[in-house]
Amino acid sequence: MLRHPGITWALWDAADVLGDRAAADWAAAAFATLAERYDEDFHLFGDPLTDRLALCHGAAGVLAVADAFHRWARLSPAAVLGARLADHLTTRLPAALTPDRPRTSLLTGAPGALSALLTATDDTLRDWLPCLGLR
């Protein structure tokens, strides 16, 4: 099982642009396998809480990739995982946004997690995704 969702997206996106259906299908299948077996308790780790929610390597980053696979590859397991991770972030973000939490950056903390959550739930907030290699 592939544990690096961003790599599968890069492979799918490149294959899609090049018209290589076999490579795109392989990348989509790899992400689908991860999505179907994704376990927040196993895949999300680190301390503090913002690490586990982070856009760079946490729930928000996986949500952003799942959202891209759902929107562009029409991958149903990505939609299911995206909904699960949106719920995961929604329930945990309030604790990460309390005043006593350290201020963190877009990639490694609550700001990125909130950005990914808002983007996954609002079609008008997508113009920043190319900065992450996403659509």
The total count of strands amounts to: 0
Q: Poorly predicted ranges (pLDDT <50, ≥5 residues)?
A: none
Output the helix-strand order: HHHHHHH
The chain-level mean pLDDT equals 90
Tell me the radius of gyration.
14 Å
What's the N-to-C terminus distance?
A: 24 Å
Helix tally equals 7
> Helical content, roughly?
55-70%
Overall geometric form: globular
- Beta content comes to under 5%
Domains, number: 1
Give the biggest sheet: none
Structural class: mainly alpha
How is this structure best described in words?
The chain is an all-alpha fold and 135 residues long. The chain has 7 helices and no strands. It starts with a helix and ends in a 14-residue tail after the last helix.
How do you describe this structure in short?
Helices cover about 65% and strands about 0% of the residues.
Spell out the blueprint of helices and strands:
Elements: H1 5-18, H2 21-37, H3 40-43, H4 49-53, H5 59-73, H6 76-96, H7 110-121
Helix pairs in contact: 1-2, 1-5, 2-6, 5-6, 5-7, 6-7
